[in-house]
């Protein structure tokens, strides 16, 4: 630390002060598409609470170490409320979304807890574990369809995306036949390239669709989540629509990208693939390790300080934004020795791939079951699985808020 | 070891149940943590410590017993 930095740390100079802030989202290296951006890695090693500049020129803090990320995300003095001044937006589209009625991921307790608790029963471990046979059946059906009479396919379009899509539609009570409609809209909402207009349009389409769906469940209830929210009687159709939208989007992109990227990471690490194939009982731990190693929410979770807080020796003032980069926290050597390597035998359970604090992913038990079944079944049923194009030609989702691959041509 | 839970803080994502299913469960109606065993046997202590470490809401805490086994 230089003297100037030390002075700053002691006196708590805001993120606008000092030299060379990192532009975020930071660009990844050409070399390894699985690693966090070099600028973020450097920040973790040299300046764990670093200055950063966002797309619109505004400043925020970048929090990169495991301990500090957990501290910030676990501290109610850091707010998730995007309507507070100083909240750091990653894109123009993100700022646009903050203007519409927020869902609980952009609210603080007690309102956040009140709304979230309406859904926790649907994702509890016991309930989701009971869905294993159903998820296994859907997985087998998709693989039957993908492999019958063929020896190559795009794994994203034919397996990784349809599986979580089918599961979340089933849980919500949304007709799967409409999946193209949601997939297109979720993709616009999550693209870093979408304009504010595109985001507004996609948002409005989904709102209208889900409000209509909530309305129809009133006369024809089923056992899906939307129907149950309608039956409570204390939420209006707009509120139900925004919760439905949140679950639909979260259910689609995250597990789909984890499945495809996990497959690719294993194909790139043949020794690890071999270990996992030789001992399928490693699957639970391997999924945690893949979650850690890949951390597909790679741009950092935004929060804004509501009072002065000291984190990692730096003073963050009220109204200053922070971004917590989960992928760098998950490579922190102090917690995960040799963390830049994929090791399916590692105990990775302390990873923060699902976030941390009261906003930690609600759907994580479901994501775990889906990933365990998808990866295990894929490897078991396709012993000759391989990439059908050169690795260099794989198109990574540098342009999306959820990392992954746009397509994954494979052969078997 | 004596285990304490704070149901007010719990956000119900169930990591504790995965770490130590003998000690923690989730309430049927809202997924909030319930304590099955407030004084788990020594063989489960590591799993409980793990649950404390990964609980995102700091809803679980433990008191260690003294030499005489009192908590
Ligand atoms: S890990 Fe913590 S927040 Fe999650 S269910 Fe258990 S007690 Fe609740």
Strand fraction of chain B: 15-25%
The whole-angstrom Rg of chain A is 21 Å
Number of helices of chain B: 2
What is the mean pLDDT of chain B? 91
Give the total of beta strands of chain B: 4
Question: Mind summarizing the main beta sheet of chain B?
Answer: 2 strands, antiparallel
> Helix coverage percent of residues of chain B?
10-25%
Q: Roughly how many Å apart are the termini of chain B?
A: 6 Å
The best one-word shape of chain B is: globular
Described by its quaternary structure, the protein is heterodimer
Structural class category of chain A: alpha+beta
Helix share, percent of chain A = 40-55%
- What is the succession of H and E elements of chain A? HEHEEHEHHHHEHHHHHHHHEEEEHHEE
Radius of gyration of chain B, taken over Cα atoms and rounded to an integer in Å:
12 Å
Strand order of the largest sheet of chain A: 1-2-3-9-6-4
Given helix and strand content, the structural type of chain B is alpha+beta
Q: Largest interface here, residues on each chain? A: A-B, 26 and 22 residues
Q: Low-confidence runs of chain A (pLDDT<50, min 5 residues)?
A: 1-12
Q: Enumerate the strands of the largest sheet of chain B in spatial order, edge to edge or round the barrel.
A: 1-4
Mean pLDDT over the full residue set of chain A: 89
């Amino acid at each position: 630390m230089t003297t100037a930095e030390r002075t700053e740390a002691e006196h708590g100079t805001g993120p606008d002060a000092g030299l060379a802030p990192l532009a975020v989202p930071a660009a990844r290296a050409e070399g390894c598409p699985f690693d966090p951006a070099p600028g973020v890695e450097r920040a973790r090693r040299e300046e764990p609470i670093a200055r950063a500049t966002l797309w619109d020129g505004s400043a925020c803090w970048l929090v990169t170490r495991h301990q500090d990320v957990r501290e910030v995300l676990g501290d109610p003095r850091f707010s998730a409320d995007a309507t507070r001044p100083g909240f750091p937006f990653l894109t123009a589209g993100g700022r646009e979304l903050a203007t519409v009625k927020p869902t609980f991921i952009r609210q603080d307790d007690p309102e956040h807890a009140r709304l979230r608790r309406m859904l926790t029963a649907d994702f509890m471990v016991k309930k989701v574990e009971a869905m294993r046979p159903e998820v296994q059946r859907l997985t087998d059906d998709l693989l039957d369809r993908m492999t019958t009479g063929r020896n190559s396919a795009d794994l994203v379009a034919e397996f990784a995306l349809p599986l979580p899509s089918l599961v979340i539609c089933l849980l919500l009570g949304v007709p799967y036949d409409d999946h193209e409609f949601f997939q297109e809209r979720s993709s616009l909402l999550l693209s870093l390239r979408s304009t504010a207009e595109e985001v507004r349009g996609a948002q409005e389409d989904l709102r209208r669709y889900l409000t209509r769906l909530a309305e129809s469940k009133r006369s024809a209830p089923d056992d899906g989540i939307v129907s149950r929210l309608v039956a409570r009687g204390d939420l209006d159709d707009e509120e139900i629509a925004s919760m439905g939208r949140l679950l639909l989007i979260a259910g689609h992109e995250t597990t789909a990208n984890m499945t495809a990227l996990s497959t690719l990471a294993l194909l790139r690490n043949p020794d690890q693939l071999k270990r996992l194939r030789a001992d399928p009982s490693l699957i639970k731990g391997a999924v945690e390790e893949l979650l850690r190693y890949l951390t597909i929410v790679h741009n950092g979770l935004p929060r804004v300080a509501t009072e002065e807080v000291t984190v990692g020796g730096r003073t963050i003032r009220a109204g200053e934004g922070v971004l917590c980069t989960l992928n760098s926290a998950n490579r922190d050597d102090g917690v995960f020795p040799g963390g830049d390597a994929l090791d399916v035998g590692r105990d990775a359970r302390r990873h923060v791939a699902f976030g941390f604090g009261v906003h930690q992913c609600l759907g994580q038990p479901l994501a775990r079951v889906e990933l365990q079944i998808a990866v295990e079944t894929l490897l078991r049923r396709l012993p000759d699985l391989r990439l059908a194009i050169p690795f260099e030609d794989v198109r990574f989702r540098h342009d999306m808020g959820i990392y992954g691959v746009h397509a994954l041509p494979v052969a078997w | 070891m004596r285990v304490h839970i704070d149901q007010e803080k719990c956000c119900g994502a169930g990591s504790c149940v995965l770490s130590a299913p003998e000690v923690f469960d989730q309430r049927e109606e809202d997924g909030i943590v319930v304590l099955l065993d407030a004084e788990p046997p020594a063989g489960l202590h590591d799993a409980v410590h793990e649950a404390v470490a990964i609980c995102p809401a700091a809803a679980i805490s433990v008191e260690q017993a003294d030499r005489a086994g009192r908590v």
